Structures are given as structure tokens and as C-alpha cells.
Amino acid sequence: MSDPSSRNAVVVCSWGEGREGLPSGAEEVLHIGRGLAAATGSALHWLIVGPLAQRASETAGRYGVTALRQLEDPKLVAGGADARVEALAVYCAHNEPRVLILHQTLEARSVAPRVAGRIDSAVVMNGIAVVSLGSGFEITATAYGGDTRVVYEVGPRPVIGFVANAVVPEPGSGAPVAAESIAVDLSAVKERIEVVERACFDGPRLDDAEIIVSGGRGLGQKDNYKLVEELAAALGGVAGASRPLVDDGWVDSSHQVGLTGRITRPNLYIAIGISGASQHMAGCSAAKTIVAINRDADAAIFQYARYGIVGDALEIVPALIRAAANRG
Amino acid sequence: MRVVVCVKEVLDPDAVNNYAVAGRLEIGADGRSLTQSAIPRLMNGYDEQAIEAALRLRDAGAAFTLCVVSAGNDPDKLLKHAAALGAEELVAIQIDPASLDHHAIALLLATQIESSGGADLVLCGRQASDDDQGVVPALIAEQLGLPVITVAREVKLEGTTLRVTRVTPEGDEIVRTPCPAVVTITNELGEPRYPTAAAKVKARRVKPSVVSPADLSLGESDLAPRVILKRQFVPEVQGNCDFLQGEPAAIAAQLIERLRADGTL
Cα–Cα distance between A63 and B248 in angstroms, integer? Predict the structure, then answer.
């Protein structure tokens, strides 16, 4: 468990989640970590909890990681939260990193504050930027569903969660970094939460989609959501939705884009009948191009859009489906 | 059994959003708080749904005392609403929330829960709609040494075992844990109920028990903030929208053409 070189290091923490490959958002937090390490003259460590992600060594090299560490224990393979929290808390207590930063997945959202609680550290979530300030940090985070930003000041050794679309990662070209494993004694940990039925969504994920077509209440009625699905299919994209549609039971919550849903970063985001509430924009404002279709010319969504269409979605979307199909 | 629901008062997030969308959201002279006095204060929506989750357990036949606790300047209004919905115990922890961070709030809530007989189940909203941090439930769980299950859309009791459906990016997940535990509720739980007029009248007479940090043997050093809010600001949105005009077919052709020309499609 002891890893003296990580004392005062900037430590980026990840674990494999869901599908194969690197955990999503890892490069974004590595990018943030690299900046913090440079600003504070610290080493940059990448700590992987449990099985090593594919290509971790190469990715570590590209972001200037000075040490790639893997916390190893059979209990971390199963991915239970109690094991993760204990492993991270023991690691932090032993090695006193300068800061522990995580990409804010749903699981990280509960692991981060639990670790902070256990080691009695400050914790801030929804981070979008951070600068060092003396021995502490100043963190900019979103609040009010994205309507405002807040700036928090914390002392040394905080735990910070970052939303994935806060930055655009810029990989460098460093040589791969060999992983070294650190054993951790989790014999006393007993997982208290038993998973009875795993989530098993195997369709395309909003998180990874290059093209997303989303619908909101402006569609009028549930039946009209099929237009969103049809346009998504015609463009080779994935269908999303704003929170009201999920709350009203029009679509499954796995389609929800927004602060309390999926944080996406597609090339193209087409918002149909979505007003542009900040809660929603928090999940799509990092899209390269936003197209908005809304009956209300004053809808906030047009402030974010590159292309705007003021009109009835029920007339425009069918025309778009035909135009998209006509690839000639 | 005893079920404790923690609730927080927030500025109406829809009203805040309306001001933001209209470009009229302003930060006060302190640089930290929103100035619009017209924005109503109400119970955090997710917390209201946490109360609803408790009431649904009761509907399903579970027998328990429902305790609703809030920490703030004036939690009376929230607590009376909770009483009208069927909470038997109401606790107001009297503090100025602006002076505290999430660790301190969690410490107050956990200490109150512990010193008043503990809880078999602690229900919280997944996050507060003002700061969106969502860390207090996990910090309470750590204080009390309890497991935490987040983003629940459904909570069931099978004897003294909780069966919870969580909303994850990969779809619903069902988990189980013996009580006691902390569970956070997400918006997918659905609409919370309203109290009846008769229950509201009756609740007017209910007096919450008022607790101070000193009553919980917590002093200034215990509650010293680790996270300090320095500033709040309204982000600027750069509008450069090209509005496409014409008949639907013409607009559609134009849009697809522009997106292809940009290399977006």
C-alpha cells in the first residue's frame, strides 16, 4: 500500500466501468491532472482501482503521467463500492496525495464523497476547472443545474469530481508508462450491497454517440417521439430526450441527456422541442454543433445553437428525415 | 422501525432557470448569492420525492415512525408540509446554512439521527437543486457507518431488507441490502403526492422540535467548513445562431447541405 512517491502528487483515479476499454472521461481528467501537476510542480500519478484498463500505459504516456499505479485485490475486480471506497481511503491516508481527482461517473459521484468522509477531506463535485492556491485549490463547479457557476476554495488534499465535458483533452506523445501494482489489504471489507439484477443495456450509448437527436416536451405527445427516433436512425445517430420526457414516462431514463442524465459530447446534437433549460444544456453544451428546432423563437436553446429552425417539429422533422435519407 | 428523511430548502430551480434564460439572473453584492427576492423558496424537489418514497413504503404496509429533519434558518414551512404528508416526528436544526459546508451539514444530520434513536432507513434526495453537489447523503452514511444506495427510482422493504431499483446509464439495476442504510432518491421516482386540505390544517398546529448544534454537542471547530464558497457567477452564452427559413422541405435540404459542408455529417 505504501507508495512514497505519491506523497504530494496529483493523483487521477479511475476504474473500469461498464464496457471494455478505458473508462470514459479518463483522458479529460488526465488532461486536468497534467495541468495541475505542472502548476504545482508535482508528479502526476494515475491510480487505477482494480483491473487495468486497456491501453492504460499508452494513455498514461500521452498525458505526462509519471507513475501508473494499479490497486490490486480480488475484491476490486468485482467492482463493489465498499471495496473501492476502502482501498482509496487507505491509499490516501497512507500516501497523502496533494489532490485526488476523478471523472464524475454515477459511481464516482458516491465513491468520492465517501472517501472524503472517511479521510476527513474536502470534497467538491461537478468541477469544470481548478487552479492551485497556496497549499489548497480553487475549484469552479456548476450549480443551479448549470444556470450559475460557483467557485469554492478548499485546503490541501481535497477529493474533486470533474464532469467529463469540462475540457477537451489534448494528448501529447510521451512514451508508454509501465504499470506497477500496489497490493491493498481488503480482507476486512464485506460488500454490504448485493446486486440482484444487473443493468443490461447493450444498445449504442449516448455517451459515445457522434450524432444525437433529442426530443423534449415541444413534441406535444408521446407518439411524436418516434420522429426523434426516426431522424436519429436516418442520420446514424442515437435518440436522446430531455428530463420532462423521462419524468412523464415517454422514454426510458437511459435516454436522458442533462445534468442528472447523460453528459454527452457529440459532433452533432439536434434538439427538437427542447427549450434549453440549463439542466439539459449541461448534458449537451459541449456538442460541436447544435441544431435547434423549436416553435418559440425566444427559446434559450437558440442561444447555444449553430443552426436554428423556428417552426413546428411535426412538419420539419419528417422533411429532415427525407432529406437525410436522400444522400445523393 | 424508524425512517428518517432529510430535507433542504432551496430557491425554486424553475424560477432561477426562467431568470437565467431571460438573461436577468443576478448575483448580489456579496458576490455569492442570487439577488432575486421574487424567487420562491421551497423544498428541494428530490427531497420531496424522498418523502414520497417513504410514504409509498407505508402504503405498501411497512410500519414505521417517519421522522423528517431539516437544517436551516427557518425550516418550519418545510416541516409542516412533511407533517401534513404524514411525518410523526419533525426536527429543525437551527443554523445558518451559509456558514456551513456539506461535511458540517452531514455531521449535524448524522449526529441528530444517532442521538435521537438512530434510523433503519435514511432517505435523501439525490442532490439539492441549488448547489447540485449531492455529497451530503454519502457523508451522512460515512458518519453513521452505513452503506449508501444512490439514485433510487423505487424502494421496497422485504422484512428488514431493502430492495432498491437504481437508475444507471446502462438501465435499471436492482440491489439489496439489510437495514440500516442510506438511500438517495432520483426524479424517476415520479410525482410526489400533495397533502389533503384537512391534513394541512392539522399540521399547522404541529411544532417541530428545535435543536441547536450545542444540543448535539457540536462546537465551532467540529463544524468549521472545509469547502468555502468564494464566488458565484452567471456564465455567458455566446449566441451565433443562423436561423434557416423557408418551407419545411427547403429548410431541411438547406440544413443537411450546411451540415455536410461543415463536415458535421
Answer: 47
